[in-house]
Structures are given as C-alpha cells and as structure tokens.
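User: Please predict structures.

Assistant: First:
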Amino acid sequence: MSALSPIIAVVATIAGLVGAMSSLLQTGRMLRARSALGVSLGFLAVYLAGHAIWLVYGVSRADGPLVVVSAVGIAASGTTLIVALRVRGADREGARPGPGAGARVSRPIGVRRVRRSSVARRRAVAPGAWTLARRPGRVRGPTDPVGRLRGVSPGSEA
C-alpha cells in the first residue's frame, strides 16, 4: 500500500458522493419547472436499483466508503424518483379542469404546436412538435394562416 492510497480513497469517495448526488440536479429542475415530462422514470428506477445493489455489495465486503456512497445515492435517486412521480401526478391533475375552471390546459404557457408552415420548414421543426412560442402576440390558425399580428391589416405591418 503506497502513501497515496489514503488520499486516493478520500478523493474517490468524494467523487462518488458528488456522482451519487447528481440526480438532485434533476430534482431541482423538476421543482423549478413544476413538470417532469422530460424525465425518464425507468432511468431513475434503474439508477436507484444500481445504488441498492452496490449498497448490498459494500455491506457484504464491509467497505465503509462504498456503503456511504451507495446510501447517499439511494437517498438522492429515491428523492428524485418520488419528486418525479409527484410532479407527474400534478401534471396530470392540472390538465383536468376543476369546478368552474376554463378550458383544459394541455401544455405549459409559452409553448405552442408548430403547424406545417414555411417557418417550421426553415427551422427544421417536425410538424406537430412542441416548441417555445417566440412571438406570443402572433396567431397561427384558420383565420390567420400566415401569422400576421392580430388586429393589423396585411398592408400596415411594419
């Protein structure tokens, strides 16, 4: 055993802890966005199971750093999975209008479905894909197919 082994063990444990806690970055993003639509629940479940297996292995070998890193990984990935499930449930509940509610909200504010238009072809956006509305004052629909400003006649646009 060299003189560097304890230092390498400490650095490896710190790196393991940082990696184990990395799923908390996704947790923060889900809580800020209040949406878990872009999160794979299958990945989170496999990540949690992997930490559980490493925990069992670390306990069987009586390897303290491995047990600590795996336990932190289970806590972090479990928290991320629980938050994802709760936020997804809130996504589904928010889509249903309650008593006295208006129209059904099917997507976040500022997001619109791109129709097959010259703009969609120029941006190489797939028809029917969701994208951020860059100009929320513009309307694309059966009454205004080219996206002119609402209330402005075709000859008076700047």
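Second:
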Amino acid sequence: MRPEDRVRVLHMIEAAESAAQFLVGRSRDDLDRDEMLLFAVVHAIEIIGEAASRVSPEARAGTPEVPWNAIRLMRNRLIRGYADIDPEVVWATATAEVPAVLPLLRALVGTDAPEAWAAAITDNERVGKALGRGTIRPNVYL
C-alpha cells in the first residue's frame, strides 16, 4: 500500500473509532435530543468517506472486501443532503456499518494505530521529500 493510502486508511480508522466513542452509553434517541452528538457522529462518517475517496484507485481495486463506493456515497449523501439527514440512518451507519468495516480497515494497515502512525509518518517524510512536499501529518485530514 502506498504511504498516502496508508495515512488515509488510518484517518478512516481514527474517525471510525471516534464515532464509536461518541456513542458509548448512548441510545438512538440521543441523536434526536443531542444536536452536538448528531453533528459529531455525522462529521466522523463524513471524514471516513472523504478519506476513502482519496485512497488511490489501485488500492481500492486491490481490496474489494472494503465497500469503498458505499462509504464514499454515504459521505456524499451527508454533505449534499445536509438539510435532511435522517438520524435513523446515521445511527444504523455508526452502530452497524462502521463497526463492520473497521476490522477490514485495520487489516489493511495490519497494526494498531500508534505504531501505524509512526510508520506512516516515516513513509510520508520520505515520499514528501522525494516529491518536494512536506510530511503528511496524521492529525491533518487529506
């Protein structure tokens, strides 16, 4: 996997884990009552989709078990349909779809996040220098 793709998959993992954390101890009704929670979960799902859209076509083609297109389409629906986001769909995505894809994403990078970030930063420093760009930092979404 190219270093840039690895960083983007790590962004997906980070956002998926954030969505899971946001929902710990919460119920479906909380999305209706807590606008900040809804916004946070929606944004995490958007980040997952945006990062997925930036994974190279070669990496996506090489990992057909990951539903790349569905992930990207969900992001597009949330962004373009911002005025009629259905909390039921957000809940189902965050509690069923995202947890289902998380192990697939972790398998792609083959490690836990801290070690993966260290490897990705090192790879991106090398690639960035070769391309005349700076390092792609893990806390900056591409």
